[in-house]
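Blinded run. Sample ID left blank on purpose so nobody reads anything into the name before looking at the predicted structure. Input follows.
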Amino acid sequence: MDLTEFVLGGTAAAIAGILTNPLEVAKTRMQLQGELAGRGQYQVHYKTVLHAFYNIGKNEGILALQKGLVPAASIKKLMGVSVLLAQSLPVESLDVLEQLSAARFTW
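Blinded prediction complete.
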């Protein structure tokens, strides 16, 4: 793999994470509202995703929409490195792994 492709792929993943993180924040908050209260006994804070964006930005500041970005980026980085390592394994080692898994699961 060329270094340029590696850098471009990492940059694209970082930009995608930054752009989609506010959606994850709004989704998680909508899913968890009233989670600890009984059915019908909780206040609905967020009615739609846009309503969640507005309320979070108004009450907590616009940067609150990026809460959890560092852990999410860390997970994406770990997944990217593991994919890169898996792709760089020689084909012979994959054949050995396949033989081991086939031998383990034969009765």
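Unblinding after everyone has recorded impressions. The chain has four helices and no strands.
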